[in-house]
Write a structure and sequence with these properties.
Length: 466
């Protein structure tokens, strides 16, 4: 499989498409083509047994054409000569009847990428048996509890060519495992993303999920209130996802729908946020062919940047940061590989500890809490006010009361209404873990790098059904 993921075939498709546009529309046409090949393989399990094993490879050609002051995009997965000609003909026909595009930012000029992307041959060549072995280890480590989840691998190679002379290729490979264990009406979860399947230890993840499930039986109900919290990396990932999509997105900022104000100290000094495609298993260039490098969005509490594509950058009087999404994406240029930089110092040992705070990093933060809550996960989070990023959502997969530095018992799931930036504001962050965990996004190839976080206050407004 891996031999197909060099980017050469994709570059040839992209170059051929640009040439077809030039022949059909003339030298005045500005064309850009992003071509990618994505091979995904997924092994799913439920009731402690594998029930689905699927694999799929898709090659897509995306064309954006600017001609006579108008812009149109189109795509196809039919990549023979007839398919490419059909795509070009459709786009040219459409561009002649579209309204003018006065905000067209022009094509990306020629610029090299710094690296082709992260690649691991063993992960690229992983078989169904390799994924099944991780599932078996997860199930066995759960010690008889009911389990469910998935193990997946994803190979992604891409090329970009435009009529201004920009031509780049890149590739990346990623894997993820996400599983739950259930017993006595309680669930526990463990998940991990990596660029190497060898890093995914199903036994460690299964034992973590089972420890949480066993510690979550017979929860008590707590009244709505503001509580000090320790958020595990799995919960912090949701915070990062929504900060990325709604906060540091250049389109949201330009439309005044974001809290982000570059130059202002909007976060606690312990907070540094960096979007890094290489560390997060992304491609080294975006869908407009702009090379990507690590971008610091918050530096020691001060917002320093937001992400841009060429269009939002032109409107803001700056340059693209390499975050252009596919042309048909309605959200705008958001970070896809956002990481919260851990506290300085040596990271905690990977060895597990007993109890629901299953890793030493999280347990250390718990030990400093006089009274509060340990939160494993958030889910069903929705935006109430994008400008202040007030979110509502639910806890999931384990909540525990902390008293005098120790976990004293499980708590029923709670609903919250909380501004994410406010929770991370100056003075609100009481501690960070020293080791970040790379976590997968459930719905797209984004990743989030997160340590555990101790926060002074989180606003819980009722029970999970309230």
């Amino acid at each position: 499989m891996s031999a197909d993921f060099t980017g050469g075939a994709e570059q040839d498709l992209a170059a051929r498409t640009v040439e077809l546009v030039r022949r059909a529309a003339g030298p005045a046409a500005q064309a850009e083509v992003f071509t990618d090949r994505v091979a995904q393989a997924l092994t799913r399990f439920a009731n402690s047994a594998i029930h689905q094993n699927v694999a799929d490879t898709t090659v897509t050609v995306r064309l954006r054409l600017h001609l006579d002051g108008r812009t149109v995009t189109g795509s196809t997965t039919v990549v023979d000569e007839a398919g490419l000609r059909g795509l070009v003909d459709r786009v040219i026909a459409a561009v002649r009847v579209c309204p003018p595009d006065p905000g067209w930012p022009g094509l990306t000029p020629p610029a090299p990428i710094t690296a082709p992307g992260r690649w691991d041959e063993a992960t690229a060549d992983a078989s169904a048996d390799d994924r099944a072995a991780r599932v078996r280890a997860f199930v066995d480590a759960a010690g008889g509890l009911e389990t469910a989840g998935y193990c997946r691998t994803r190979n992604w190679s891409a090329a970009f060519v435009n009529s201004a002379g920009q031509a780049v290729t890149g590739r990346t490979v990623a894997t993820a495992m996400d599983g739950v264990a259930r017993g006595g009406g309680a669930d526990g979860v463990a998940r991990l993303a990596s660029g190497r399947l060898a890093d995914v230890d199903g036994a460690v993840l299964g034992a973590r999920a089972a420890a949480k499930a066993r510690a979550g039986v017979d929860p008590v109900e707590l009244p709505p209130d503001r509580y000090e919290v320790v958020l595990e990396p799995t919960a912090v990932a949701d915070v990062l996802h929504n900060l990325a999509l709604w906060g540091f997105n250049g389109r949201m900022v330009g439309e005044r729908r974001s809290f982000a104000e570059p130059g202002k100290p909007q976060f606690d000094p312990t907070i540094t946020l960096v979007d890094d495609a290489a560390g997060g298993l992304g491609l080294p260039f975006d869908f407009e062919g702009t090379p990507r490098t690590a971008l610091t969005l918050v530096d020691a509490g001060r917002t320093t940047a937001v992400t841009h594509d060429r269009r939002t950058a032109a409107g803001a009087g700056t340059t693209s940061t390499g975050h252009a999404p596919p042309a048909d994406n309605p959200w705008g240029p958001a970070p896809n590989n956002l990481g919260l930089v851990p506290a300085p110092g040596p990271g905690s040992a990977p060895a597990e500890v007993s109890g629901p705070a299953v890793d030493a990093d999280t347990a250390d933060l718990v030990s400093r809490v006089e009274r509060g809550l340990l939160i494993t996960d958030f889910w069903y989070t929705r935006v109430l006010d994008p400008r202040s990023l007030v979110m509502t959502g639910l806890t999931r997969n384990g909540v525990w009361l902390i008293e005098d530095g120790a976990v004293t018992g499980p708590v029923r799931n709670l609903r919250f209404t909380q501004s994410y930036p406010q929770a991370l504001a100056p003075g609100a962050v009481l501690g960070l873990g020293r080791r970040a965990t790379l976590l997968p996004d459930s719905w797209n190839p984004s990743t989030w790098s997160a340590p555990a976080v101790r926060l002074a206050s989180w606003n819980f407004t009722g029970g999970a059904s309230g």
